[in-house]
């Protein structure tokens, strides 16, 4: 049963994108992954933007105060097994927004457990793609067996 | 009917079947011109801190002492890969993509100057800025609390109960004074000019 689950999960990773107040640069790079040039679906990654059916959460943007509770709520809606990936500098450090008197509460790892971080402002679509593919076996393979 | 037959024949063609099942987009490689995170070229760093001064992202670059030598460190997660540190470095310590090649080809140079502004309404003449300044420290190590100095070569000192900037041109733009000022009375403005050789008009 575990082997069947592993096989299925390795070819169907469902992604939910959440923008917690970014400059839109990383959103465009994530969108570029869907384009025919990068073609994210050939690797079995599907973007749904529905946390209830997601496996991977892509967090984009320096977390603004309005997002603090909502990001946690959203994370809790995702069924197990799940992994969160911080895309870009903003959820890692706040990047250029993390200055004196600015309303950001970066990093995102204060609120939800971040499994992987992709640095860059913005990161290349290939970097996003390879990170999702690299984190999937680590987070989802033999999930039920390891939880026991 | 004919068109259905045409399509069926087309679909059982070996070539089509093979492509339909196995074709993938070409592996995506990072092109050579991509301006990635700066890496060291191995040339000696002189600790002039031009890279740190020009960096627009907070906390992205640091010059530290490693095994007796100064070396810049890039912090991923802070660095925005703008390539300005690569351009600003007079020694070519860092490299990223084709930035250094373009820089040499177009004969551009970066010149920075720093302006110190003091809000005398807010300044309470504590002298913290004069004491904290690393250039002052080198010129006049005797300067104690209060920021008084008899040395005329210091950037700034407390003179007759008033903060006075004497040698603005010596400022390296580190903004240490800004950080130590309790009243936010001192401000350092960085003005950066990019000049091209053979081009009389400097582009700012």
* Widest beta sheet: strand line-up of chain B: 1-4
- Counted by DSSP, the helix tally of chain B is 8
CATH class of the largest domain in chain B: Alpha Beta
Count of domain modules of chain A: 1
Strand order of the largest sheet of chain A: 2-1-3-4-5
How many individual β-strands of chain A?
A: 5
Separate helix tally of chain A: 6
* Count of spatially separate domains of chain B: 2
N-to-C order of helices and strands of chain B: HHEHEEHEHEHHEEHE
Apparent shape of chain B: elongated
Helix content of chain B: 25-40%
Work out the strand percent of chain B. 15-25%
What is the CATH topology assignment of the largest domain in chain B? Answer: Alpha-Beta Plaits
Helix content bin of chain A: 25-40%
Intertermini distance of chain B: 71 Å
Q: Tell me the number of strands of chain B.
A: 8
Low-confidence stretches of chain B: none
CATH class category of chain A: Alpha Beta
Architecture (CATH level 2) name of the largest domain in chain B: 2-Layer Sandwich
What does this structure look like?
Chain A has 148 residues and is of the alpha/beta class. Chain A has a single domain, classed as Rossmann fold, CATH 3.40.50.12280. Chain A has six helices and five strands. Chain A has helices at 2-11, 25-33, 68-77, 90-93, 125-140, 143-147, and strands spanning 13-19, 45-47, 56-60, 83-87, 116-118. Chain A has a five-stranded parallel β-sheet with strand order 2-1-3-4-5. The two termini of chain A are 15 Å apart. The mean pLDDT of chain B is 85. With 204 residues, chain B is α+β, with helices and mostly antiparallel strands. Chain B folds into two domains: 39-107, Alpha-Beta Plaits (2-Layer Sandwich), CATH 3.30.70; 115-190, Alpha-Beta Plaits (2-Layer Sandwich). Chain B is 25% helix and 22% strand. Chain A binds chain B through residues 36-39, 42, 89, 92-93, 95-96, 98-99, 117, 119-121, 124-126, 129, and chain B through 24-25, 28, 30, 34, 37, 56-59, 75-81.
């Amino acid at each position: 049963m575990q082997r069947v689950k592993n096989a299925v999960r390795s070819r169907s990773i469902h992604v939910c994108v959440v923008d917690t107040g970014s400059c839109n640069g990383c959103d465009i790079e994530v969108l570029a992954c869907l384009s025919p040039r990068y073609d994210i679906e050939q690797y079995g990654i599907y973007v749904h933007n529905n946390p209830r059916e997601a496996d991977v959460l892509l967090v984009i943007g320096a977390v603004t105060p309005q997002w603090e509770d909502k990001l946690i709520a959203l994370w809790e809606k995702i069924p197990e097994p799940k992994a969160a990936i911080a895309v870009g500098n903003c959820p890692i450090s706040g990047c250029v927004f993390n200055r004196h008197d600015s309303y950001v509460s970066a990093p995102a790892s204060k609120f939800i457990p971040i499994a992987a971080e992709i640095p860059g402002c913005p990161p290349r679509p290939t970097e996003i793609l390879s990170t999702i593919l690299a984190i999937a076996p680590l987070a989802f393979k033999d999930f039920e067996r390891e939880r026991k | 009917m004919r068109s259905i037959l045409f399509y069926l024949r087309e679909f059982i063609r070996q070539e089509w079947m093979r492509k339909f099942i196995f074709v993938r987009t070409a592996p995506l490689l990072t092109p050579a011109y991509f301006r990635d995170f700066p890496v060291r070229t191995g040339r000696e760093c002189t600790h002039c801190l031009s890279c740190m001064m020009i960096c627009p992202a907070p906390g992205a670059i640091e010059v530290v002492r490693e095994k007796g030598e100064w070396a810049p460190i890039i912090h991923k997660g802070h660095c925005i890969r703008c390539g300005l540190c690569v351009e600003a470095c007079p020694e070519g310590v860092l490299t990223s993509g084709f930035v250094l090649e373009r820089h040499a080809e177009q004969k551009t140079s970066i010149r920075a100057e720093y302006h110190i502004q003091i809000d005398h309404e807010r300044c309470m003449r504590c002298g913290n800025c004069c004491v904290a300044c690393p250039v002052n420290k080198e010129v006049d190590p005797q300067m104690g609390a209060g920021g008084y100095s008899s040395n005329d070569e210091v950037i700034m000192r407390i003179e007759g109960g008033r903060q006075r900037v004497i040698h603005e041109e010596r400022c390296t733009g580190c903004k240490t004074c800004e950080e130590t000022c309790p009243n936010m009375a001192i401000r350092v403005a960085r003005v950066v000019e990019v000049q091209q050789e053979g081009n009389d008009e400097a582009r700012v």
